[in-house]
Amino acid sequence: MNILALNGSPRGKNGNTEVILEPFLRGCEKAGAAIEIIYLAKKNIKHCSGCFSCWTKTPGKCVHQDDMEDLLVKVSEADIMVYATPLYYFTVTGIMKDFMDRMLPLNNKEIVKVGEKYGHPKRVEREIPVKSVLISNCGFPGDYNFSGLLETFKVMTKGNLAGAILCTQGGILQTIHSNAMLEKLYSPFFLALETAGKEIVNQGTITDATQNILNKDFIDSETYMNAANGENRKGEL
């Protein structure tokens, strides 16, 4: 099983997103999957110009000659896509959105109706549809902040969103492993991330038991907010 993971954080390996992504992918790898991580911040991906040449003049090929050409090959070979992005203004980062826009050449221009929904068919249909996993974090308490992001991926993946790991209070993630108290407090969360990776590979979904741990707030919202606002002079939660 091939997994293509996209880290859409402008901070790449140094961001909070990587703190969540790494143990999840470790679990996938332990379950036998082949992993490739793409750091979009290091790629040259131009904005989609909306010319539709990839549908009309050069079907399946974009007019832009950049890194996206090679990335589309990797996308077409993946069994599971992992979209990892911090929450920027309640949606994906700009570089992740550029990547998503530039996947247009993978679709045909025709509009088709499937059930009660409309969309563009894939240029190459696969016997087993590609599954997707969404991983995100935000600086706010409250999982409602992810509502727009989650709906986007539900629609985009056409019912093939295998899992969503949405971490609130993300501002703390970078400090956890350097603070013994926090590391102990969050150890169930990181174990659940690895377990979720194994479950996605072995079962195609995340179990309710694992999801409940991933959804849990390990610090109450008021304490987190006060620390984030600088009311704790030591800068510790």
UniProtKB/TrEMBL annotation:
Pfam families cross-referenced by the UniProt entry: FMN_red
Organism superkingdom: Bacteria
Keyword Flavoprotein: yes
Domain NADPH-dependent FMN reductase-like positions: 1-109
Gene3D superfamilies in alphabetical order: 3.40.50.360
Xref: InterPro entries: Flavoprotein-like_sf (IPR029039), FMN_Rdtase-like_dom (IPR005025), ISF_SsuE-like (IPR051796)
Keywords: Flavoprotein, FMN
Protein name: Flavodoxin family protein
Originating organism: Acetobacterium tundrae
